[in-house]
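My current task is to audit a protein record that another person submitted. What it holds is a sequence and that sequence's fold in token form. Thanks in advance; the entry in question is below.
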Amino acid sequence: MTDPMPRGSFLYGMDGHPVVVVPARVADWLDRHAGLNSLRIAGREVNDAEVTAVLTDIHIASLKWRASVAGIDPRKPPEAMGASPVMNARQAADELGLTDRAVRLAITQKRLHATKDHNNRWAINREDLEHFRAARAAA
């Protein structure tokens, strides 16, 4: 496992107007878990062009990252895209090089987001799997 990124790794311009660079995976996490899409829409209503522009860019980076990990190419029809965006615990374990039990444990410990499908089996979407993989690598 790699060391976590040190604080300040994404912060630039501290002597003037500071800027934070947000990696696309983090943009996706923020978009999905912090409700940035609602904030982006509200920003338009408030008429704050800078806020709207930044939140729109975060949203676009999030969508691009999601498409890349899900194997989605918007120029191709869905049947030509390849891998399913949803997998079960066994498939996730194979993808991660873990056991089924380790994946189920991560789910019950809420380190890996998953839902139950109509057959009461765990369903894990590719984006959540990639967030989990990145979090494990950073730990």
About this structure: The longest strand covers residues 122-125.
